[in-house]
Amino acid sequence: MKQNILALTILCLCISSIPLSSAQEQTLPCTFRMMDGFYECFLNAVSTPNNELWNFAFTGTHIAGQSNAGVTRLNIQGSRSYFIIRQAFTTFVNLRVYSFTAPIAGNVMRFQADAFQNANMLEQIIINGAGLNTIFPNALIGAPNLQVLNLQNNLLTSLPNSLLDLSYRLTTCNLMQNQLTEIHQTFFARTTNITNINLNNNQLTSLPQILLSQTRLIVQFHAQSNQINAIGRRFLDNLNALTTLNLLGNACVSQNFPNINSGNINDVHTALQNCYNNYGGSVEPRSFRMNLRGMMTLWREDGTLVGRL
Ligand SMILES: *[C@@H]1O[C@H](CO)[C@@H](O)[C@H](O)[C@H]1NC(C)=O
């Protein structure tokens, strides 16, 4: 009996080790071409197995004078992929853009933990409509030069708080059309160069007081068509570069502010009074707020206007 169990155990070990000892390989046939200023590997209608252990080998004929080192964009369209193809970053060592668009219907993607581990040169991640539903907290750690993160039209319900903690160079973050119910107050704490944030068409219910406290260069903030019913009273403090604040279709405010400047910022604050009032009232300091921008505006602690001088 004991021997049988031992034999069975050995048999099981052998079987489970087979895929590891002979990693399966799939070739990905690139069409190499110049497009939009990139020398790219274009992949159309490929389908990868849902198994991270597979090796993916890019093949194809380069145009004259080019090589893998010259490839700056991976452009995958009309395809099925369950995760980021890591071999892209070791094959094309100067890759700037990883783009996966127009996937096969029903595609379900994840950013595996070490998805971008060799992506030192990567500047843009574009994963659109791919059914992306999981992002591991350190997924972007290997892409310190990321400038654009575009995850529009996916199935994200939450984001790891620390996802962008090393993304110092990020300028654009597009999370439009997902199912986010919350965005953590420190999510953008390290992205001090960001100019454009798009959270349109999610299910956010509030905008935390300090969400933008470190993003002093922000020009556009979009959060249309959410369910926002509360906004921290200092949400807009010191955002001197902000020109566009889009909040149409929310619970406490339904308006877009397309031309913000120092002359009309107080009108924005006035329009946001309901939102401010709904935001964790008792934790606000018990004092008047003075806003000295050409004129002085006095608010009561409950957010109602005392007057302007
Ligand atoms: C932030 O932007 C400035 C101006 O474009 C640039 O000089 C600086 O290197 C950027 N910082 C980072 C961390 O990318």
From TrEMBL:
Signal peptide range:
1-23
The question of whether Iron is a record keyword is answered with no
Repeat in keyword set = yes
Entry keyword set: Leucine-rich repeat, Repeat, Signal
UniProt cross-references to Pfam families, sorted A to Z: LRR_5
Domain of life of the native organism: Eukaryota
Gene3D superfamilies membership: Ribonuclease Inhibitor
Entry-linked InterPro entries: Leu-rich_rpt (IPR001611), LRR_5 (IPR026906), LRR_dom_sf (IPR032675), SLRP (IPR050333)
Q: What is this protein called?
A: Uncharacterized protein
